[in-house]
Prior knowledge:
Radius of gyration: 31 Å
Region (Disordered): 362-394
Keywords: Membrane, Transmembrane, Transmembrane helix
Protein name: GLUG domain-containing protein
Helix content: 10-25%
Largest sheet: 22 strands, parallel
CATH class of the largest domain: Mainly Beta
Transmembrane segments: 397-421
Organism: Halosimplex pelagicum
Strand content: 35-45%
Amino acid sequence: MNRTRAVRTLTLVALVALSVVGPVSGLAVANEQQETTSSPLSEMAGSGTPQDPYVITSVEELQAMSDDLGAHYALGADIDASVTETWNAGNGFDPVGGEDGAFHGSLDGNGHAISGLTIIRPQATNVGLFGITAGTVQNVSLRDVTVNGNEHIGALAGISTGSITGSSATGNLRGTGANVGGLVGANDGQIVAAYAEATVAGSEIVGGLVGTNGGPIRGSYAGGEVRATEVAGGLVGANSNAVTASYATATVSVDRMAGGLVGTNSGTIRTSYAASEIDGNVTVGGIAGTNGNSIVSQTYWDEGVAGVNDSTGDGADIGTALSTGELTGEDALSNLGGFDAANVWMPSEEYPVHQWQRPDVDPLDRWQVPTPTTAPPTPTPTPVPTPSPTPTSSGGAFAVGPGFGPVAVLLAVAALAVLAVRRP
């Protein structure tokens, strides 16, 4: 009898121990997992609001923008991103925002540079610092980037439907598909006072600044090299919106259809010029490969540098051909009717440039650019005591642990009942 009672007592002790240890173990595992998966955002200065953006000072914090696509960010220092060439088994940086959710916050570079960013994803679409952005990006400089992908490839964004101002890129970009640009692969937003001086290559629709453009581009330019099998432009590969007060001084190499400024144009081009060398034989022009009946006004091209005889490759008579001497030097602007020398353009020893290109000029002051909407301050809620969570076996704070607590308690109660019934 004493032996039987001892066994029953030990059983009760074990069950009660399980009821206590079970939830405690589950809580410990849950807390450990939470600590190891916490976002770098929690360690960054700022709170992610327009008034108090998260401050990025490292490439790891730059990647952390993926953790909150709607937050507001600002660079607090130059970022050396060269380590990204070893990330993700050589695939490099993971683009912020994509088909599962576009970036819709803001990033202000504050004039700082991000250098050495590497993204190698040859089968991927929407490749760049941002895969897809619908937000506001300003004063961001990307230097010596290496970006490879399939289509929609750009140093700053694969696709942009937002606002990009005062931003730039240099480096090497390659796409095996369509829509490759030095700054943006496909643009349906606005781009103002931006530039790219990069080597940009793709299969089709390739541009020094933008691959395919469906949004307004103002006061921007592109240099470097542009290479494509089909459809390439010094500034834009394919344009269907408005290009204003912009220029290209690139080398464009293509098998078919190329222009010094745009590869093919179905939009408008005003007060712009091209001084791009064209290397191609089929449907090539000093301004555009094809233009149709699109509006082009007060636009010029350097026929000596272009190496082609016509402004377009489809017979459309647009723009004005000038010699290199007429388009360069202190007197160049006198030959460019419609160019605003008081507010937009200024002469240089070579071709005319934008006034915002002077180091003492802020592009945001020179151009009227919408800024992110400032949200009203969020009131601080009154702290409310939170009751301790009840352990469960199927979810909640203890879901990752053994979850034996409530089961053990029920078993203990059942055992006590059996003992009470069978006690002599």
